[in-house]
Amino acid sequence: MVSETGYGTASGLLDTARELSSLFGIICAGTVLMTEERSSLAGGATTGEAFVSGYRTALTVAVITMAAGAAIGAILLAPRTEDSLGL
């Protein structure tokens, strides 16, 4: 059995991991947005068109990343039976 102090530590670690992953996601989305926006501006797009293009690309990358994470999570968290464990 885990002591009650362990629950607080686990909660703190999970909260920190969630905050850091959110920060990482925002940084990545901003980088993709700015890169695509600059590319569109260099190609002759207007400021508004370039922003929309960057935003669309950033959201597409975010959706693909979330779908990949959901698939990996579903595989890793699938219930295990005794047969699949070789017991």
Helices and strands in order, then pairings?
Elements: H1 4-42, H2 47-76
Describe this structure in words.
With 87 residues, this protein is mostly helical. Helix content is 79%, strand content 0%. The chain has helices at 4-42, 47-76. The radius of gyration is 20 Å and the shape is elongated. The two termini are 25 Å apart. The model has no long low-confidence stretch (mean pLDDT 90).
| Head-to-tail CA distance between termini | 25 Å
> How much of the sequence is in beta strands?
under 5%
For the residues shown, what is the average pLDDT? 90
Shape: elongated
Low-confidence segments: none
Q: How are helices and strands ordered from N to C?
A: HH
Oligomer: single chain
Helix proportion of residues, in percent? over 70%
Which secondary-structure class do the elements indicate? mainly alpha
Tell me the total number of β-strands.
0
User: Could you describe the largest sheet, including whether it forms a barrel?
Assistant: none
Nutshell version of this structure?
79% of the residues lie in helices and 0% in strands. The protein is an all-alpha fold and 87 residues long.
Annotation keywords:
87 residues, 0% strand, 2 helices, 79% helix, mainly alpha, elongated
